Amino acid sequence: xxxxxxxxxxxxxxxxxxxxxxxxxxxxxxxxxxxxxxxxxxxxxxxxxxxxxxxxxxxxxxxxxxxxxxxxxxxxxxxxxxxxxxxxxxxxxxxxxxxxxxxxxxxxxxxxxxxxxxxxxxxxxxxxxxxxxxxxxxxxxxxxxxxxxxxxxxxxxxxxxxxxxxxxxxxxxxxxxxxxxxxxxxxxxxxxxxxxxxxxxxxxxxxxxxxxxxxxxxxxxxxxxxxxxxxxxxxxxxxxxxxxxxxxxxxxxxxxxxxxxxxxxxxxxxxxxxxxxxxxxxxxxxxxxxxxxxxxxxxxxxxxxxxxxxxxxxxxxxxxxxxxxxxxxxxxxxxxxxxxxxxxxxxxxxxxxxxxxxxxxxxxxxxxxxxxxxxxxxxxxxxxxxxxxxxxxxxxxxxxxxxxxxxxxxxxxxxxxxxxxxxxxxxxxxxxxxxxxxxxxxxxxxxxxxxxxxxxxxxxxxxxxxxxxxxxxxxxxxxxxxxxxxxxxxxxxxxxxxxxxxxxxxxxxxxxxxxxxxxxxxxxxxxxxxxxxxxxxxxxxxxxxxxxxxxxxxxxxxxxxxxxxxxxxxxxxxxxxxxxxxxxxxxxxxxxxxxxxxxxxxxxxxxxxxxxxxxxxxxxxxxxxxxxxxxxxxxxxxxxxxxxxxxxxxxxxxxxxxxxxxxxxxxxxxxxxxxxxxxxxxxxxxxxxxxxxxxxxxxxxxxxxxxxxxxx
Length: 712
Ligand code: ADP
Ligand code: ZN
Ligand code: ZN
Prior knowledge:
There is one protein chain. By secondary structure, the protein is α/β, with parallel strands linked by helices. It is built from 19 helices and 28 strands. Strands 8-9-7-10-11-6-12 form a seven-stranded parallel beta sheet, with helices on both faces. Helix 8 links the parallel strand 8 (225-228) and strand 9 (251-254). The model has no long low-confidence stretch (mean pLDDT 91). One zinc ion binds at residues 395, 397-398, 400, 435, 437-438, 440.
């Protein structure tokens, strides 16, 4: 360790400080040279030495100045160009907007392994040769001739320059081909240009990565396409990050974390399935990668392409065309209503469950339709949004229910290993032999999850035979949900089985609805979607509509095969509310009508996108303490000029109020002015830290702010 230089430079360094420390700004260190902003350094922090990023301009340090003794920068990570100003601006903005420390956001945006590497190790890593261009992987993905709709969209993107576009394209309209060709055009136009392509799910990246490598590997080498998601090992993530940062990678494909990739020549950002809730980070800095992508695109002069069959209502509203007196939204809207090579969108059949015999779970019509498809060698897919066997185990005698001792929730009965498992805290026990309260031996499952659905279906379809041409035999049912895919690689294996045709009926949670291009599915059914119609979360209908449209889009993707089969794709929905306007719009595959109706309701209720929200949440040992803290916090900002423009609702318990013995409460904060809301939050932050240290903070385990929350 060097002695502190007598004369040198003061540099600000963004480091990861503990969240409770309340330090939001970079820390000051001494350096022998005027390190440029963005330089990666190692600095002492307490007893440790940590990775940091130089923030802002270095200032000369005059000798003999009074004040606290500054510690020197320990090492500079040579060989790495500084992080760009655009990247630092993105981090600054995200930290400010989502109310987090700059250092936290900056460090979270860097690959974890960079923290551990010493300067020498990094130098060795950098000396490693990038993959040769000859290693181009499986070639053979040639661009397809665009359909007229694709051609029109590509022409608009070509002429459109920077700015954000919303591509509203039906499932199967060929959005992926548009992404591929838009990326190809950008990369061809500038030999250094880079593109960022984001998808919502890790599971969707391998499929897409293969497409991109096949298309661009032959042009730029296999190393030109890199992935970035949390399923990768730390060395893999470091490799991808370095390739992007050094400009060797032309395309970064990843999940929400990729929005922070260092891309010095970023020219295009694609956000596929832009409506997907998983773009919102649910811990730490609760950022929306979609919203940050739009911000980043504007900052860097890059084009941003948001794509979806069912855009978020925020983006839909944000892309409305100009009308009298209304200048319209900031995004330009592009449309691809037709499907390519696929048949029509599936016919939607609503089963009125009021007309079924009492306690019907699967209507006879639906079972019959599935049986017919099995007999013809086609596949069906059943969606149920609850895993496990039954949501509750109950005693008919004394009323005992399988509550979790640590949470205000029931433990779910999993028959497969005869366990009662809490889906909130993970607490699991073997199913008791008899009722723990009264000793009754007859305790029974109530309600139904995917496991039970699978079992019932097997009974109902027991007599059905597969076609002789396919080898005959009984129906093959598979289940895909968080339980069946707990082990690494299990999901990929199960999906492959569906693709190979080794499964006739697939039962699962919404996990199976996303993106997968199953060719032989001709029937999709939503078994019990009604919960979302009356949820207290105003976004529940939006999510349901999107889920149903998306899963419907899984059916009948191969029109030639469908015609040869003499079959027709169908989507079945079992509901007690067949008159609900959501289903009406779904029947007509009319997203714009659904969106118009929802936006009208949102406008009337002053909900987003017509207002802006944040949640202030507190966790404590008791519900009183949690709510008390929030109430005091609300009173604490009464004096601010913005307080009048920002409504603070009363503190309430969360829907699942207790998890793992922690009581949780939240307060909704809302304003028609985003600026007012942001100003209030910024001033609230230090006051909340102070409040936490005072008497109102007694018993508070943690508090957090969620800006633009997706789950209310
Ligand atoms: P989306 O992402 O909009 O749901 P995809 O990109 O998966 O749609 O495209 C649906 C199918 O159409 C895919 O099998 C794709 O290969 C095919 N496809 C897309 N564009 C074309 C085209 N221009 N010509 C022929 N086939 C196409
Ligand atoms: Zn009992
Ligand atoms: Zn629990």
